[in-house]
Amino acid sequence: MPQLRKDPIVGRWVVVNVENPLHPQDFHLPPFKWKGEKNCPFCYGNEHMTPPEIQVIASSERGPNTSGWRVRVVPNKYPALRIEGGLNKRGLGIYDMSNGIGAHEVIIETPHHFKGLGELEVGEIKDVLRMYCLRSLDLRKDRRFKYILIFKNVGAQAGASLEHPHSQLIALPMVPKNVKEEIKGAKRYFEFRERCVFCDMIAYEIESQERIIYESDMFLAFCPLSSRFSFEVWIIPKEHKDDFATMSELELENLASSLKEVIRKLKKVLGEHPYNYIIHTSPVNTDSYFSYHWHIEIMPKLTRVAGFEWGSGFYIVFTPPELAAQYLKDV
């Protein structure tokens, strides 16, 4: 019989197929091939094909918008939101509206077109993570912004329009609904038990050892008991911290190693596959959220979200997280 499992943070239910679980070879993913793009705007020598850069990490002196960078940030050529202007919140009958104010940036993670995160050196991944922090700290100076969302799409099925390794950052004038639900759930749990729900999850996972796939000095990577997707993995700091952007150099190094190991394991088990990852962190320029705990959610795109999921808010998980963790742990 399938199991129903409830997420302890937001109260979401998932249906877990424990009777006839799917194994990695059962997902029949379409071939995922690095094609290479003749005029890739993110490769060395093509810096003129992007909007002028905002910030770079480079090993030597270089002219603006030239080669020689290690990580490069540019405005998105087709931004979801624009930084110029005023918010102008207003009502239209029962509806709330405002101008599309925000920031939309692209973090080009490496000049190497064919090197995904799993193939980069730990120091190179650390540079990417450092840039995430630098951009978040810079953008929060704009008091209009309340949330900095950092995410990565890999593969067309996960929403990537270019294959060159890159992430995106969108600064929003309000806190997104998904994050707000997590914050509310964490606050409720803290008020009831005077403990962080994420810290309790970490303690339970370390005690049970069923779903852990990697553990470093500072971070834990595991498949959540109430995962929404097969082979979903969370990476979370073992020490309670609410703000991703305030990591120390040691934490950056530790996270870079953990992220590389998790991406490498997923690729080893699932092959080249589409996936998303999202950094969930505290809002900015608003109340502090000491009960929140930042984390990275990595979600392979192995199946499609369809009518049942959209209609019910439930998710069907075809590979129990315990089995997924065993595959990933054994690599």
Q: Note the run of SSEs as H and E.
A: EEEEEEEHEEHHEEEHEEHEH
| Biggest β-sheet description | 10 strands, antiparallel
Q: Regions with pLDDT < 50 over 5+ consecutive residues? A: none
Tell me the total number of β-strands. Answer: 15
Rg result: 20 Å
3D structure, described in words:
- With 331 residues, this protein is of the alpha+beta class.
- Helix content is 26%, strand content 22%.
- It has a ten-stranded antiparallel sheet, sandwiched between helices.
- The protein is globular, with a radius of gyration of 20 Å.
- The mean pLDDT is 93.
Quick overview of this protein structure:
The chain has 331 residues and is an alpha+beta fold. It has helices at 122-139, 177-193, 197-208, 249-270, 307-312, 321-330, and strands at 3-6, 13-16, 55-58, 69-75, 90-92, 95-97, 103-108, 147-154, 166-172, 212-215, 219-222, 233-237, 275-280, 295-300, 315-317. The strands form 3 sheets. A 10-stranded antiparallel beta sheet has the order 3-4-7-9-8-13-14-12-11-10, with helices on both faces.
Helix/strand layout:
Blueprint: E1 3-6, E2 13-16, E3 55-58, E4 69-75, E5 90-92, E6 95-97, E7 103-108, H1 122-139, E8 147-154, E9 166-172, H2 177-193, H3 197-208, E10 212-215, E11 219-222, E12 233-237, H4 249-270, E13 275-280, E14 295-300, H5 307-312, E15 315-317, H6 321-330
Parallel strand pairs: 2-15
Antiparallel strand pairs: 1-2, 3-4, 4-7, 5-6, 7-9, 8-9, 8-13, 10-11, 11-12, 12-14, 13-14
Helix pairs in contact: 1-4
List keywords for this structure.
331 residues, alpha+beta, 10-stranded antiparallel β-sheet, 3-stranded mixed β-sheet, 6 helices, 26% helix
